[in-house]
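User: Can you write out an input/output pair for a complex, sequences first and structure second?

Assistant: Here is one pair. Inputs:
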Amino acid sequence: MVKDLFKLRRFLKGYLLQLTIGPLCKLTEAVLELMIPLITADIIDTGVRQQDVGYILSRGGLMVLMGALGLGFALVCQKSASVAAQGFGTKLRNALFRHINTLSHAELDKIGTPSLITRMTSDINQLQWAVAMLIRLVIRAPFLVTGALVMAMLIEWRLSLLFFAAAALIALVLYLVMSRSVPFFRAVQQKLDRVSLLSREMLSGSRVIRAFGREEKEEEDFRRQNEDLSRTSIAVGRISALLSPMTFVIAQAAIIAVVWFGSGMVDTGTLKTGQIVALVNYMTQILLAMIVVSNLVVVFTRAAASAGRVNELFELQPSVREENACDPAPDPSAPILSMQHVSFGYGHDGLALHDISFSVRRGETIGIIGGTGSGKSTLINLIPRFYDATEGEVQVYGSPVDRFSLKFLRSQIGMVPQQAVLFRGTIRENLRWCKPDAGEEEMQQALKTAQAWDFVSALPEGLDTPLSAGGKNLSGGQRQRLTIARALVMQPPILILDDSASALDFATDAALRKALAAETGEMTVFMVSQRVGTVRYADRILVLDGGELVGVGSHRELVRSCPVYREICLSQLRSEEVE
Amino acid sequence: MKKKRNTRLLLQRLVQYASPYHARILCALLLAILNVTLSLTAPVLIGYAIDKAVSPGQVDRDGILWLLAATAGAVALSTLFGYLMNLCTNSVAYAITRDLRRDICRKLNAVEQRFIDDHPHGDLMSRMVNDVDAVGEGLQQGITQLFSGLVMIIATLGFMLRLHYVIAFVVVLITPLSVFVASFITRFSQNMFKKQSKTQGELSAYIEEYVGNQKLVKTFGHEEASQQAFEEINDRLKECGQKAQFVSSWANPSTRFVNGLVTAAVTIVGAVSAVNGTLTVGQIATFITYANQYTKPFNEVTGVIPQLQAAAAGAHRIFALLDEPELSQDPPENEEMVFHGQVDVEDVSFSYVPEKPLIRHFTLHVSPGQRVAIVGPTGCGKTTLINLLMRFYDVNSGAIRVDGVDIRELPRHQLRSQYGMVLQESWLKCATIRDNIAYGRPDASEEDIRRAAKEAHIARFIERLPEGYDTVISEDGANLSQGQRQLLCIARVMLCDPPMLILDEATSSIDTRTEIRVQRAFAKMMKGRTSFIVAHRLSTIREADVILVMKDGNIIEQGTHETLLRQQGFYYELYNSQFAES
């Protein structure tokens, strides 16, 4: 568990100055504070005894000065703590976000967004707090404890053994409590994930929840999770609440023992009463320091649990890797895309694609059609390497896709996903996603091709219209057309439309197809669709059924040769239209 | 001035949240008193014990034994009470945390749909998770420190008064200075905490959006740009976090400095009094000890000020959410109401933003059992119409009546339970397939669930899954295709068997062969039931009893497929455009 914390030390790099100065200042402050009693003694012993008011006042002034100095040092320490802690957290968040950006779909699916959010916020907050506490408190306590132990040894080494015994016992208690509570803290954070998931669902599904009148039921589900979280928190609180009382008991027991054995020694003349007082004072000092430490331990235990969760993310390696990437020169004579005996399964329920082979020439328009769950989207996902084929090979420009860097490969592909998602920001910012330097002309052209220019130009703020998250302030069809425009702006060699006209009315759909055909002469276009109308004019159509490729050819050929295709056609068109 | 009132209100509301647990809080206070008094007694007893060991041969071993036994007793009891006090404050803090989360959850279901549509979800989630956490942390630290601090202050004050009231007076007079300094710093930094909490919300919203749509980010190779934007927000968070933490952490050293001044003052006044002969040297020593003792709790309380401030900032955002206006009160259930499915939309106007009127003077009459198809270019107000029918939004003027009753006079759940709704966005819960199908009818029998799945033509697929109906749908539904998700949504409605249907692009991702079969099931279901269908596919539209052609928030044509074609209007254009050669 400490290992987990230790692993994250790399993010403290660059804050070495703060990490050294902070505790040192705190130490100086502590030393200054310890000098106050000496001055007090001076005032009493010299000032009062010699009836010297001037001396009393000057020493008093010194006390004030010491206080002011102490304040200065403390502020430097606090400054170091806040700079280092927040800086550490910021670096860690940046790195984690960067790492998440490298993960492939399979890993992201597994962890889920709400858990990623709690790890990025709540868990890192815990760690940040631990760093601040580290700087503020960690050096002072050992300093005080060591000092007290040394002093005790100098006074009477046999009695100092009691001190060591107490220190060892306290350490044992700290260890026990810490190791007991780490799993609980982990569980707390996991349950926080659940709470976060449920609240996210409640927001994203609010319409459905309300439509089905499930508000109370959802609240009940939430209450149960919430109750569970609160119970676990209380349980772990019960364990950590043991720390300071236990420390108190052990230290007090040591004090009692010191007085008892010490008084025996006084009896035999080996110890003076004053020395017992001193020993008791030192033990009290240790006690106070240890109580601070025990609070610190709770913070660190919680941080250790969080560090484990953060490390778990860092250790997750993307399943799609770039180790073979060498970006070979494209072979102009090779087909732009080909698949050879490609099979793919998501891992749990058999194969989603089975032994698919086909190749596509540059500039071709390929329609992909098939039933629900026939593997159309899966097939498309293999091209930009969202997943890697389980068997067989996907080739682009004549080389296997894993020979290209992901950056290059994906820059070749313009993808219009099934779900029309836009991001917060203006329309312009969204269009410039794939091509940050796109000019007005280019954007206008893309919007026109995507049949979006009409409504965008009619908006009072045009391209500068702000979109809310997901583009929820536009209708589904408007969103879809903007996602098409977004892909067109980059003028990709390969354009993939994954059933991305489903929310368009048929007039717009037809106009879109027409414009696409006219504007994408050089582009190789893949159109996934349920509608025969969308794919029938493609150069070739791939027909998928249950994960198998059951037909390749033009509309005319397939109507004759492919029974699955024919059936699809008949379901949509009148028989005279089919031929 | 306003700020002060805000803070007081905040406290008042937190006290309200604490009030159900007043027994435990009282207990904690009592335990704190016992704990502190006993822990103060222990050193006194030890002192007496040491006094009994004077010099060799003059040691009262028996007396010491008794005193030490008493000390042990005091320590044991004090520890016990201390632990119990911790348990009490712990359970109160977590109970309040739990109650806050429960209320936020309840609130999310009670606010207007508009609020949810308009707010970044990540920000609301951050209130639920991070802000509540901050409040819990603050409460826990706050209650513990405050209670033992308070008791400690009162106890030492009492001891001091007994010793020498002039010096006690000096101490009491000067300490509020430290309180003043602390409160000044607190006020100064509170704004930064608010900013920190807000920025944290912003960061969560960003993560929710970009991590939630990570696949898209990858598709477009937008990783670098999204990283930059993230780092920008993150940097701002660092900035205000550093400031908040730093400024607020002044409170503790400053209080300690002020208290150092108090000690110095006591020492000087004491020493001068000793010179004048009104005080003995021993008394000065005791006094200094007590002055230290007295200021210690102040120092400890100010030590947790950053947590308290973070808690206040969190509470502020939580209460702001809890203060959002709720949906208007539902009228009582209309038990005599029998739904036949007559829907009248009378002169309805509506807009999401007042400046942009969307639906204007819209009138529509649907007789029971009619199948209404709504077509029109995207953005013409189809989805808005559904928002109004389901009363996700209320009309601005005019009225919608179901069987002659204004829908605002019905409780929302009664109205909504009459409709079966399938939307294009196929939202499913992160639960088993069985639970998802039974979403609208949790008490449905296994047999009914299977029948619904069969009617929605998803049963074969489900049965092929290794875990069948117990398969858990992952959060983003990665194990299901878009079409399969839609089929599950359809099964969900089929099971409810509602009197009226609203299908908004319900089958857009389903292949046409399956769609035809599903539609047959729908047709059977819709027989004699009023239904509203938004669709683009002709097969769906052609068979409707009435086709409404909408444009810019108005109905511009109305009729059956044949009559509309004959009119050669907008519909005719739409219809023919799909055959346009490309």
